[in-house]
Amino acid sequence: MTRKLDLPDAPEAAADAAMSAPSALRNREAILSVLTRIAPDRGRALELASGTGEHVIAFAPAMPGLTWQPSDPDPIRRASITAWSARHPSENLLAPVDLNAATPGWAETEGPFDLIFLCNLLHLISGPEVDVLLQEFAAALAPGGIGAIYGPFLRDGEATSEGDASFHASLQAQDPAIGYKDVIDVAAALTGQGLHLFETVKMPANNLMLCLERR
Ligand SMILES: C[S@@+](CC[C@H](N)C(=O)[O-])C[C@H]1O[C@@H](n2cnc3c(N)ncnc32)[C@H](O)[C@@H]1O
């Protein structure tokens, strides 16, 4: 059952640093319905690449047993997260931290976490950066912890919609090192790090959400 979120669709005023991402507003309810189904009841939750903060301000009140840690390496995005959090405070929502998820070592310094969520980043970084990110992602999950990765993927090497093909091509035109990753390779990297892929959920706009557990 889909719940209607009691949150605004866009910043009410430009008086603070709050930014709005149309895609985050479009996919927020669908992501929330998967996360609330698979998330542990309590513990520490990390959102990587939080962006504007419009996801985490909905996740924290919906999963009150988890303490939510938003993060982003971009100070402008962190200011946006802080501004949205001030408008929609939750006791279990922490201030954003500066975290580059493609840097080795963060699992050790920041972890462990009972839930880690990542949305819409893997296609924007290079293959070697993805390798480090997935290694740290897996290492940062506590035993029994749940990982969720949402985004667009190639499937068997192919983009599976016209929109995906053109977005992937435009990313590679900007920088040949980036672009969509194959879901098979991402899943293999994570299972190779000891995670169990228990569900692959079809999401809006031809995206997928990989649901993983450290057993
Ligand atoms: C397309 S936005 C996605 C934001 C948000 N997750 C969403 O879905 O609305 C990509 C975000 O990743 C952040 N980012 C870029 N490189 C990163 C990295 N190496 N580690 C963590 N976050 C990164 C950017 O600052 C930006 O906020």
Q: Which terms summarize this structure?
A:
6 strands, single chain, six-stranded mixed beta sheet, globular, binds S-adenosylmethionine, alpha/beta, 7 helices, 215 residues, Rossmann fold
Question: TL;DR of this structure?
Answer:
36% of the residues lie in helices and 20% in strands.
Structure report:
It contains 7 helices and 6 strands. By secondary structure, it is an alpha/beta fold. The chain has a single domain (22-214), classed as 3-Layer(aba) Sandwich (Rossmann fold), CATH 3.40.50.150. A hairpin with a 5-residue loop joins strand 5 (195-202) and strand 6 (208-214). The longest helix has 17 residues, at 22-38. The model has no long low-confidence stretch (mean pLDDT 95). The structure holds S-adenosylmethionine. Residues 21, 23-24, 48-51, 55, 72-74, 77, 100-102, 119-121, 124-125 line the site of S-adenosylmethionine.
Give the topology, please.
Blueprint: H1 22-38, E1 43-48, H2 56-62, E2 66-70, H3 75-87, H4 106-110, E3 113-119, H5 127-139, E4 141-151, H6 162-174, H7 183-192, E5 195-202, E6 208-214
Parallel strand pairs: 1-2, 1-3, 3-4
Antiparallel strand pairs: 4-6, 5-6
Residues 21, 23-24, 48-51, 55, 72-74, 77, 100-102, 119-121, 124-125 line the site of S-adenosylmethionine.
